Amino acid sequence: MNSLTEQIMPNVVLTCLQTAKFKTGCLSINLLTPLNRETASKNALIPMVLVRGTATLPDMAAISARLDSLYGARIKPVVRKKGEIQVIGLYADFADDAFIPEERNILEHITELMGEMLLMPKTRGGLLLKEYVESEREKLLELIRGRINDKRGYSIQRLFELMCSMEDYSTDKLGSETDAESITANELTRHYHDTLAVSPIEVFYCGSSEPSRVKAAVKAALASLTRSDEEPDLGTDIRMNSLEENPRYFEDELQITQGKLAIGFRLGECMDEPNAAAIRVFNSVFGGSVTSKLFMNVREKLSLCYFASSFVDMHKGILAVSSGIEFDKYDDALSEILSQLETVKNGDISEHELSSSKSSIASDYRTIEDSPGALEDFYLNQALIGPACSPSELAALAEDITLEEVVQIAKGVECDAIYFLRGAKEEDS
Which tens digits make up the pLDDT trace of 275-297? Predict the structure, then answer.
């Protein structure tokens, strides 16, 4: 695979990954916007409305017919949270021209359609269609309200809301129900134009086409894009240490039969010059794999939980543990999870644990190269936080991580907040 990254227009960067490995190509156009409570829901709604209709393809039936004519290509709205940056845009997957029997220029047609969706949505009187805005707003509200149905994900969401309450990171990528409910077509149209004018744009392509061809297609599709001299303040505030000397405790009650314990940590000094491979190996040793301390001890050996795992957000410098427990095992489970972190800090890591974790992370990195979608997300992360490495290069780095590097990262980790979602107490009759 050959990758090329180039600024092709003011504040528009194209990353082109040329490969003949896949029968389908992918193209994404991503607007980078600051994540905050005031605009998150409006930002999330924009791409949902854009895919409803364009100036020449006014409804979903017309768009669907057009995509069917392009060998069943698909375009979907995308909303992502990368630290304190909200990424909104369009993602397309389509038959690669190298595997089409006749000359069809699928790439150019898809790029043109995505450009039209982005820059020339269906309007009436200069405003985004009221019926499209209201319809998609209801879908957005359903997604926001439905988050509580996944109790595991909901507990992590609540942990971050409470742990980072004074930081933009506390904002969900879809925003809040209250903010979403009040969005009007007038308001969304203004916000759409403002966002389009100032947001840096990251374009990613994966497929067999030459970079020069991709560049020409993207520039043609975005030719009518107008940019403002104003640039948004993009970036993520990485806090090295916990907010208070002792961890903060939070608790909610719901009608549930299994408690959800979520613990948030700051990764600490390793975020000064983060070594992504080493941080991920540390996380794998602690709780990010089936050979980890949390899985083998807290879950398997001591049976203190139904599940226990950890993950890291490299954008924000946060480590989080998610576990499902019986309500009366809260104290034991919490104590043991924190104890397992101490064993990593003390270097009590077997050769098997370390080698298994390195192999697991190396395999995860190499697996990225088997999917255009995974590659797209990987290179978007690279654009935001680096390092400028391929998945295979990071895999090789992971295999060389030492015990000392893992311990050094662990020693800087601080517990910041503990959240417990317990069952609601029955009221006395």
Answer: 999 999 999 999 999 999 999 99
Predicted local distance difference test score (pLDDT) of residue 428: 42
Residues 252 and 198 in one domain: no
Q: Rounded CA gap, 275 and 386, in Å?
A: 10
Q: Which residues pair with 322 in a beta bridge?
A: 262, 309
Within-domain flag for 411: yes
Centre a 10 Å sphere on the Cβ of residue 57 and count the other Cβ atoms it contains. 20
Total length of the chain = 429
Q: Give the span between the Cα atoms of 156 and 81, in whole angstroms.
A: 14
Same domain membership, residue 82 and residue 210? yes
Q: What's the pLDDT tens digit per position in 87-124?
A: 999 999 999 998 888 877 999 999 999 999 999 999 99
pTM above 0.85, yes or no: yes
Question: Is the distance from CB of 119 to CB of 222 less than 8 angstroms?
Answer: yes
Which sign, positive or negative, has the C-alpha torsion 54, 230, 12, 31?
negative
Q: Which structural domain, as residue segments, surrounds residue 413?
A: 248-423
> Which position has the token pair 């060389």?
400
- Are 305 and 290 spatial neighbours (Cβ–Cβ below 8 Å)? no
Whether residue 240 is contained in a domain is answered as: no
For 227, the token pair is: 């940019």
The token pair at 39 is 């605009």
- Residue 80 and residue 199 share a domain: yes
- Distances in Å between the Cα of 230 and the Cα atoms of 36, 59, 423 are 18, 33, 49
User: Which strands make up the sheet holding 318-325, listed edge to edge?
Assistant: 248-254, 414-423, 259-266, 318-325, 307-313
269 and 405 belong to one structural domain = yes
3-state secondary structure of 288: coil
* The two structure tokens encoding residue 419: 């959240």
Q: What pLDDT, in 10s, does the model give residues 216-235?
A: 999 999 999 988 878 788 99
Both 209 and 341 in one domain: the answer is no
Nearest alpha carbon to residue 172 among 211, 139, 143, 199: 143
Number of domain units in the chain: 2
Dist CA 356 CA 428 (whole Å): 52
Please report, to the nearest 10 degrees, the dihedral formed by the alpha carbons of residues 210, 215, 217, 220 taken in order. -160
Are 205 and 307 members of one domain? no
124: exposed, middle or buried (C-beta count within 10 Å: 0-12, 13-18, 19+)?
A: exposed
Q: How far is CA 43 from the centre of its chain?
A: 15
Among left, alpha and beta (phi > 0; psi -120 to 50; other), residue 264 is beta
Residue 428 resides in a domain = no
